[in-house]
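1st attempt posting a full record on here, be nice pls
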Amino acid sequence: MLLAGVACGPAGLLGLSGCATSGYDHLVTADRHDIHRVESYLNGLTSLQASFVQDGPAQQQGDGRFTYVPGRFEMVYEVPHAMRAVARDGRLVLRSADSGAVTHLSLRRNPLGLLLRHPIGFDRDVQVTKVSRGAESLQISVAEADNPSQGLLTLQFSDVHGRLTLVGIQGVDARHHHFGLSLFDVQENQPVSESSFILPE
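the predicted structure (as tokens):
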């Protein structure tokens, strides 16, 4: 799983193989400045909680609650059916409340795995492919520098009066499966129970 909307070359995700420059030193000064802002924002969070709406493969949709702390996140689905997913330690574990079925997914070569790094840095083994700005918005796209064809992660932020807030997570994996989260009613740096990040069994 995992939209990325942007890539290094005109061939989309496939074009990533031709732009394996790591980090962001190759970008213009304004882009580097905004990447530093994103790094500072993400590494300054102790927690982020929000409602989400998800778009996925084959028009699949869902909604629920998203909770992030550095190195971990939890998604509790209410629609289309009750399900809980926890990501940590390089993997994502999902449990269906209806059937009790548990699914394990590795995130070590999946773009979502970039969110599990702490501290988050978009240099060295990460490749920044694009920085985009809009009216009170900022978006950056990143991939694994040594193998960018594994997928692309795009982080979307509101940028109001110089203050960033994460409002979207989009991605596409190596098999071109698209994934997107839109975040609403974002609350930052509120207490979060450690029980949120116990892996489902």
